[in-house]
Amino acid sequence: MVKYGVMERNLRTTIKSIGFCVLLLLPLISISAFGQHKETGDFNITEPHAYVRAEAGRELTIHWLNYSYSARNIFTVRIEIIKDSEIVRTVIESTANDGEYIDLLPADFVPGKYKIKITSTDETAISFSEQFEIILLIPIEITSPANNENLKQESTCVIRWSSDYPESKVYINLFKIGENKQLISRLNIGENLANKGEYEWRIPSDLEDAAYIIGLRIPPIANIKYSPPFIIGIIGQE
Questions:
Q1: E strand or H helix at 82, and its extent?
Q2: What pLDDT digit, counting tens, does each position of 110-136 carry?
Q3: Which of helix, strand or coil describes residue 228?
Q4: Measured between alpha carbons, how far is residue 111 from residues 65, 108, 164 in Å?
Q5: What is the mean pLDDT of residues 147-170?
Q6: Which of 11, 136, 165, 183 has the CB geometry, 3.0–4.6 Å to 175, for a possible disulfide?
Q7: What's the CATH fold of domain 43-135?
Q8: What is the dihedral of CA 221, 224, 225, 231, to 10 degrees?
Q9: pLDDT: which is higher, 150 or 26
């Protein structure tokens, strides 16, 4: 009986030791298996955002913030474009962690929904952008209103653009940028307009203070061209 009692105590001790070792190894196993795919929150990618429609063959602006103290000690990052967790383009293997990089998308880039992935080159920090869209190039340039331009109600906004198909008609719409960055159709500015490259729009007095974009379509071009975001009224202030 004494012999079996000793064996039982030894077995219990062994089981406890194994259990303790497993507990110690679990975090390491988790890091090894999943650490490369889990967002650390060190970066906050602010652009491209949800309503961005980047055009193949044009520049894609990437902005990010060092969101935590640890990210401020990261000097270089790798930037990639991913689709369904698969890397489809390495934008750059290593660039300064200065919060901005401008990529020229290939003209033959396949249209679809994508995300930006930013990883510190030492693999300790990772972040993903919101899902955005890459589309075929739209041969229209909107030069006014300018990016982040501030306009007032009851003032005149001169909308300027250039395009092919000068004999075609132009359709212009206003979209509000909602709280979740979704686009909300706000009003029809003009339709069946002559394609003169310029249109003077009187901003209504009852238009709410918010961020907006212009949507401009010129048939036979199928896609709508978006302007850079701009502001009407005063936002972000009490």
A1: strand 76-83
A2: 999 999 999 999 999 999 999 999 999
A3: coil
A4: 27, 9, 22
A5: 92
A6: 183
A7: Immunoglobulin-like (2.60.40)
A8: 160
A9: 150
